Amino acid sequence: MSTPRYIIDLAALKKNLEILSQVKQLADCNIVLALKGFSLWKTFPLIAEYLDGCCASGLWEAQLSHQEMGKHTLTYSPAYKEAEIKELVEISNHLDFNSPSQWLRFREMVTSHPRFLSGELKCGIRINPEHSTGSTPIYDPCAAGSRLGATAQSLEGVDLTGITGLHFHTLCEQNSDDLETTLEAIDQKFGTLLNRPEITWLNMGGGHWITKPDYDVDRLIRLIQQTRERYNLDQIWLEPGEAIAIHTGVLEASVVDIVENAGQQIAILDVSATCHMPDVLEMPYRPDLFGPDGTLATESGPHLYRLGGPSCLAGDIIGDYTFSKALQIGDTLTFDDMAHYTMVKTTTFNGVPHPAIALKNEDGSLETIREFTYEDFRNRLC
Description:
Layout: E1 5-9, H1 10-27, E2 30-31, E3 33-34, H2 44-48, E4 53-56, H3 59-69, E5 72-76, H4 82-91, E6 94-97, H5 100-111, H6 114-117, E7 122-126, E8 163-167, H7 176-194, E9 201-203, H8 217-231, E10 235-238, H9 242-245, E11 249-261, E12 264-269, H10 273-276, H11 279-282, E13 289-290, E14 303-308, E15 317-323, E16 332-336, E17 356-360, E18 366-370, H12 374-379
Helix pairs in contact: 3-4, 7-8
């Protein structure tokens, strides 16, 4: 099949899920898929065998979780509209609010709903421990002036009757040492609130890089157990996105043209940084890449190329890579780790075709599950 295409390796996905399932059992916690990181719903039947459901960042993701996963749906958004609340109370199991004002605005509507009265729907509030641990400012929800989560000061004197859980999300692709310092900050600022008898669950959010080889799983398990005991909680939830889909997908591209400018060899591909892997520009970062012969490209050497996309954006540059031999028009290049926080962010900016989506089955066979056409582009805006 021609490029571009994303390929999701089901065997690799299953391996990650097995690790997460073991953590669930040893820590006695609940783990859900963060749809903002990976939402390829054709894989949901496999994921549902291991995890407890999905967390959603708004109505559409909650609907996808409800319809395609059919297990727990944990919903949080920085702000809800009334029409969204009316739909979310019908399908969410946890409905978490970002601010005291949002909670107070919708409290009566939510707490009078039959699903809330029966205990099928629970409400929480996202807290901001004001404790930054990450290194990338754009992904720091604890930065000064952040709109995400209620600070301890903002909750002083607020009537939280009906709130039975707290939710924090402060990590991004981090190890459990950062979780440990975050929990210490939470105890200092919100320990009194967590010790209230009506608070029965805690959502530790995402950003836990559990399936990375150097992740300290033992410390994570210990922290979950200690936290449950410290506050006498019934449940602890985790919402990893990257840990589920990391190293499960690739993006295949072809060399369309090779040009030269100021002594720099430039290969123009049929994939785009801005359209197909925007975190390359936003983070920014340099993805690993395998050349036509399957060897890992390096940063320097005799066959050095700047790889660019087909869009009109001057900065649509993926990076500089060195290959074992000179590239040729038509060569296939493979970008590694293109499943999490990549497929969910793609666009058809500039009319650049969207990559096809394929599954690699455990027997090695490939199954194309979606190909995109001009009609998909045309119908997006009308």
